[in-house]
Amino acid sequence: MILITGATGFLGAELTHKLTNQGLRVCALKREHSVIPELLKGNSLIEWRIADINDFSALEDAFEGITQVYHCAAFISFDPKDKAKLLRINIEGTSNIVHLCLAGNQRLVHVSSVAALGDAKKGMQITENDHWEYSPNVHSYAISKYEGEMEVWRGIAEGLDAVIVNPSVIIGPGAGYSGSGAIFKLVKEGLAFYTKGATGIVDVQDVVKSMIALMNSSEHGQRFTISAENLHYKTFFAEIAKGFGVKAPAKEAKAWMLGIAWRGAKLASFFTGKPAALTSDAAKSSMNESLYSNDKITKTIGIQFKPLSQSIQEICTALINSRP
């Protein structure tokens, strides 16, 4: 039996949907008050099990009868205020998963992040062999994903049967206008600026395909970067604008402008009581040029990634046709 943590989230829901479409029964983990996505409602092949990954006792019960585990549950935030929550969920929660997989001899596919990879060697793309080094400028999300991944490596050293995937920015219509979908919302509403940075991007369906292929492979004790293409933000935003039929951002946002913007957003949050729309960490990340290699996953499972121009057009079309 297959267990999926974070099954109500963007990636977890897509993975659950894909596996049940293959006729497989799955146990999907959710917290007590989490809402089941429309994509999964009424699916008779899903057994919902109630547990929080930070509640070891409930999690232990949820592992009954399980042979394979996909660990998708995570918390994503670039707000410094969320540091404690990031560390609790992404590190302590993962430690619980690793402990139970070791105890029950379950095979694990752990979803890490490219944020847990190191910097590239000069003139090269970032690969699985580039190891993360602590820096005072690293944001808390990266620390939490790195330390969470270290829990899995600890488990592997103790006999855990596991592989790790490190996806880049995951896009798909299921994100709606939250998470990576927030970028689509900004461009649709007339975003005027772009930053000079660049990053890896991948369609959620390709991440799911890679995870399933790795789970069913003989690979063990390895990590794999899952990224389709590297895009500069200017190009990424222009593709989104094309998909929505709106004007593409045409002005480059300089570092000093972003500095003013995140400070203004922080000030505004004091008055509104809502999280800042832009944080210092997010502003810094948008200026970085992080380019990722997908050679290892391509050679291992033979995946052909969907062109991002096609993915972006499909997402824009789905968002236009979705209910408000």
TrEMBL record:
Q: Which InterPro entries match?
A: Epimerase_deHydtase (IPR001509), NAD(P)-bd_dom_sf (IPR036291), NAD(P)-dependent_oxidoreduct (IPR051783)
The molecular function GO annotations come to: aldehyde dehydrogenase (NAD+) activity
- List the record's Gene Ontology CC terms alphabetically: cytoplasm
The chain positions of domain NAD-dependent epimerase/dehydratase read: 2-225
Q: List the protein's name.
A: Nucleoside-diphosphate-sugar epimerase
**Annotated organism of origin:** Pedobacter duraquae
